[in-house]
Fold each of these.
Amino acid sequence: MKLSTNSVLASLNCALFIPAVNALSSRAGFEQKCAEITTKSLGIANATVWFTEFVEAGTNLTFPDNHASCGRPSSLVSKDLCRIALRVETSEDSEISLETWLPADWNKRFLSTGNGGWSGCIQYEDIEYTTSLGFATVGANNGHNGTSGAPFLNKPEVVEDFAWRSVHTGVVVGKQITTAFYDRNFTKSYYLGCSTGGRQGMKSVQSFPEDFDGVVVGAPALAFNRLNAWSAHFYLITGTPESDTFVPVNLWTTIIHDDILRQCDGLDGYEDGLIEDVTLCNYRPEALICEPAQNTSTCLTGKQAETVRKVFEPLYGENGIFIYPRMQPGSELTGAVFSSYTGHPFASEWYKYAVHNDADWDPATIGLEDYTLASKLNPGNIETFDGDLSEFQERGGKLLHYHGQEDGIITSENSPWYYNHVSRTMGLPSSELDSFYRLFRISGLAHCTGGSGASFIGQKSQANAGLEPEENVLMAAVDWVENGNAPDTILGTAVVSGTQSDSNKIGKVAFKRRHCRYPYRNVYSGKGDATDPDTWKCI
Ligand SMILES: *[C@@H]1O[C@H](CO)[C@@H](O)[C@H](O)[C@H]1NC(C)=O
Ligand SMILES: *[C@@H]1O[C@H](CO)[C@@H](O)[C@H](O)[C@H]1NC(C)=O
Ligand SMILES: *[C@@H]1O[C@H](CO)[C@@H](O)[C@H](O)[C@H]1NC(C)=O
Ligand SMILES: *[C@@H]1O[C@H](CO)[C@@H](O)[C@H](O)[C@H]1NC(C)=O
Ligand SMILES: *[C@@H]1O[C@H](CO)[C@@H](O)[C@H](O)[C@H]1NC(C)=O
């Protein structure tokens, strides 16, 4: 393990020391080469260069043209790079905005980032993270600008971009630019994304197996039409804040969370507020039903207990057909999807703008027929649930999939659900899937980042505790692809909350813990300091 670790870090650094022989060898040559990139010099079909600029390390880059709702006004750039902004026509009725950041100390690798939610937003912080590590990186706007799904309305081509074409086009164009700029081929191609970005990475593995050698996906929005049915259905369970079925947010985060821990935290052998395998938690909310004359802010009515029970049950559709796995206990701390009545904007936008194509459609009317219709239409072929990954496997691709078990937006139970679907579809047991597909269930990780446990696994720059493959999912994928070292565990870092002063520096380390690959689960050995990773075992 140690040797391989060093070789990955060495190969990351070696670009600095190889005497370059071309025009890029000097800072002036690099700047000039960057300035010389034009639409014509690239000659890529449908691609128009908007501008190029040399960005010096330490620059606070601002993005005045980025849609305000994206909330990404600036990014501190840590390495010298050439920034190329383009527009690429994807059909007569759609286009993507694409950026390619080419670092001066290139590690010879190519990488694509993804998006999140409905965006519409180039994830500059991810591009900065991976270019700072030396990857030539692309990021696109997913075919529209801003965080709303409204641009899908009567625009099937824009939906296609969102479903698959933005990432794929960005990869095809970005690879050509990378090769042209450095005047040599990249060695390997990678992907890093979470949530919608997780779905985009899975889509590439399923439908464009040539695009990447190593793919890191987190909390993927898999089975997308059904996911939106599931996200929308919580409203039907909870009702409005005035109804007697409603459970206020503060009850979820206090008494319900505490009671879940009381019933399930010890299942992994140690009570520390972290449930290592949430699939084992069959929570019984009836324990919280009020005693006579009990203060109702410390207990539940029978109706509220029913709401809690239903939130943690799978969703079934017309004729009892299984639609989506249950929300997992552990999500209640950040359960944005179900704990507050907000008109479930995420799900309703898909139904409004892509399924019904009706901006006036009322989300309160959602029902079983809508779920059936969405799955039947499958706009843009967005479902992303193909279980046959054999083309990706055959070309030697590696898929590293992780999901936080405190995710309150996309249930972490969809990840083992998909993994098992792949296992059955391909007829392969885990011992065989292990050669190209590994799933890690991360205790104490919320949706992509955050959470109460060892949630820093290098999935984002603000959740990066180090570059050793054993504790960084991106470096683990590189080590797997290039050196054949498959990750057995991912070492997560928990930081003391409130001490993280700068998003690029980690706060004081609280503890570290190794997260197991599915179907293994983490248990405490019964001896020693539980904050020491060595006191836990994958069984
Ligand atoms: C970068 O510039 C923006 C806009 O001027 C500013 O709001 C932000 O604080 C700056 N960031 C840093 C790290 O200096
Ligand atoms: C270029 O755009 C056209 C139509 O706008 C589209 O049909 C075609 O697929 C695009 N080509 C590439 C290589 O993306
Ligand atoms: C998105 O915004 C960019 C920058 O303002 C603009 O060039 C592009 O045309 C916009 N894309 C769409 C699909 O509106
Ligand atoms: C990239 O690799 C291909 C196939 O091996 C080769 O034909 C091509 O010349 C290479 N391009 C550069 C710029 O080295
Ligand atoms: C019920 O409990 C809450 C929170 O502990 C407290 O603020 C409130 O005063 C209590 N109400 C009664 C009637 O005791």
Amino acid sequence: MKWVTNALSLGLVATSVLAAPLDNRQDDGGLDLYQLQVTSKNKQIDGRYLALNGSDLGLYDGDDTGPIKVYQTDSKKEGCKELHTYPIGIVDHSLGLVGPPALLTFVDMVNPDGADPGNGAVAMWDTFRVEDGKVTNDAEGQWLAFPDVKKSWKVKWSDGSSPTIDDYMPVEVAYVSAGQGRYVGK
Ligand SMILES: *[C@@H]1O[C@H](CO)[C@@H](O)[C@H](O)[C@H]1NC(C)=O
């Protein structure tokens, strides 16, 4: 009986391994997809992939839908890129940086063009730099990760002027190839 159980679970593993390449082939259409991986000296967060919980990008142990996939398009701003989430839906989802200018939260924005976060906050979504394997913002500053509930971390862009908060970690955000997707309706 024990042998049967083992064989069955092996069978299940084999099936799910096979499913991934088939899905990719179906979706092949020349759109390069990426996942965003955090690198840090902190072993708790190094190598983990950015995911969404609600509209906040971060590192989560649960409640999220797995690593996000993005594709890049040219921004109207010289040398900058926009990062849109994949799969492409009816409304555009773009990664954005929102909040008080000193410490911007990394979020998923719906139809970001013309978005006004109000209260003196800014919303940036067309100023990403995607170079040398890394994603940064086209402004002075750096990525910081802040511990959150349930061993989660939120990722923010700091221009260095925010009040000192002790428990953040400087991190880098790397982009890692995640296969090909396709444009829909474009
Ligand atoms: C996800 O967001 C919800 C609502 O803000 C929160 O209650 C929950 O703790 C978050 N989960 C994680 C893993 O951070």
Amino acid sequence: MPDLQERIDKVRLRLLSAATKCGRSKAEIMLVAVSKTRSADAIRHAANNGLHHFGENYLQEALEKIDTLKSLGLDWHFIGPIQSNKTRQIAENFSWVHSVDRVKIAQRLSDQRPSDMPPLNVCLQINIDNETTKAGLSPDQALLATKNILDLPNIKLRGLMAIPAVRQGQQAQQKPFSKLQQLMDEINRPLDKSEKLDTLSMGMSGDLEAAIFENATIIRVGTDIFGPRSVKQQ
Ligand SMILES: *Cc1c(COP(=O)(O)O)cnc(C)c1O
């Protein structure tokens, strides 16, 4: 799949170039390939091109691919909406969950994380532009939720995730990412060093440079790695 390799190389170059421009190391930034709607075969090719972290939005679809590809030892990130009756399978099959938007979900993930697995890495999803169409906690809700979630034994609260409204131009795109960074600083201020959040999951195909400038540590890229998704399943 020469196209795939070219697209991956291009995204890696964009990551490196943005990081260099703002004085960061590319090693600080994890690239998660968003593989919703893609076949197990496409993921295998991406893995052959050096990608290791894959993001999925739909649990049933993800579980099939995780099973098919289990010999590759990939790390799977759950980034979609979470229904409480689905938490067990998420806790059992993923390394990261970016879309926790209620304390109750965090509690269930901790209760259901198998004891022989390392703690599940968790980010709180923040509705940073306060959009009625989007999931996520408000900044105030996140400040309150943090205390309860930090005490849960089998998950590790790593940071914040957001999907801002679409904006044109890097400067405009940086604003909501800067807000997310400030919220993480505010959450971290009273915390002990060992508890401090260290992850900002932000930036997708259209705004990854803006996110890197505002200290993203994980970017989640689908379209610019795998090509356009069919309109039916965004
Ligand atoms: C689909 C999706 C992405 C990837 O978006 P692209 O624009 O295709 O790069 C990232 N994060 C989440 C939560 C998504 O649902």
Amino acid sequence: MSTEEEARKLDEADPGHRGLFRVPPAEGGAYPETAYFAGNSLGLQPVAVREELLAELDDWARLGVEGHLAAKRPWLPYHSLLTAPAARLVGALSSETVVMNSLTVNLHLLMVSFYRPAGERTRIVIEDSAFPSDSYAVRSQARFHGLDPDAAVVRLETQEILDFLATEGETVALVLLGGVNYRTGELLDIPRITAAGRAVGAVVGWDLAHAVGNVPLRLHDWGPDFAAWCSYKYLNAGPGAVAGVFVHERHHGGGLPRFEGWWSTEESTRFEMAPVSRPPSTVEAWQVSNPPILALTPVLTSVRIFDEIGMEALRERSIRLTGYLESLLDEIPAAEVLTPRDPARRGCQLSLRVRDADDLSRRLRVRHGVVTDARKPDVVRIAPVPLYSSYHDCWRAARAFEEEA
Ligand SMILES: *Cc1c(COP(=O)(O)O)cnc(C)c1O
């Protein structure tokens, strides 16, 4: 196996941005910091976020309600500070992107517009290994429309999706898939599936929870109808952070049904407090409530980090780092990698099949300070995050795995 010395040398040559983050201390093992591989579940705290939050608290203390207009970053248009960097991150126009609510709530708000079963076209296609929240969301949408969710929701293996669309596409109302699968780490061919779905007349939406901040995205060009993501995984915006949505510009200003509130009306006339809304012809028409400023602050810190470093550069480092971890794991007979071996078909996460995921993950953490994530019963996920993970972390993970598996 590659030596610790080699791992340290790789870190010197390709250092990443660990200094921008607070790496949790290790409880056990030979090193003071954890080797943190759970950024696909909860990303680490950017150092800058504390000061940024204190500044908002100070403005609130100093200004009270005047902060809406007089804060250093006025609260009224605050969400719009996030729009351009978030749009760059997902390859969208600013008019197509807004940061609001949480992921599953946004999926529901988007399905109000984009899941409209009619006649024979009632089905929703998801992956067989879809994240449970997405499965519950689409099943409840089917029920809401008076349909039997067991009949309306079709669960497919990822390699079956294109064939199914080709043969049964006219029965599909909505294709809603994870861009990167949370369990296997597989990156789907988003442009190809999007084109195939749209070609048969289905609406296509993407859940980018595990894709955003992990792989480069070009949503505007790829042309899905909508997308949604959360900000607490690879975006490092903190537990339960405010999420993001994309609605392609071809749907702006049109007649799609939406649920509205006072943030659905255009900003310039909002405070005329008129009884009837005047929605803007942008994705902001999908907003409902005034946003939680203190919760938007960490998202702002986060998207600025991505904006500065650039997703393309991060992806290159990600491919090197995950490839290094893979090469170390390949030397260990007990390591069975479930994730596609082609770097173009995965993000940074490697999923391993193990005997008892919970127990192994616990031993890796307690005995070695290596933080992974267990998916019961038999999958351990290890995500080297290009912003803050190191080659030395990967070396520690492989060594610990070899000892414990
Ligand atoms: C993390 C994740 C969620 C979480 O949903 P919340 O609404 O943020 O609690 C949903 N779907 C997928 C695919 C996820 O990976």
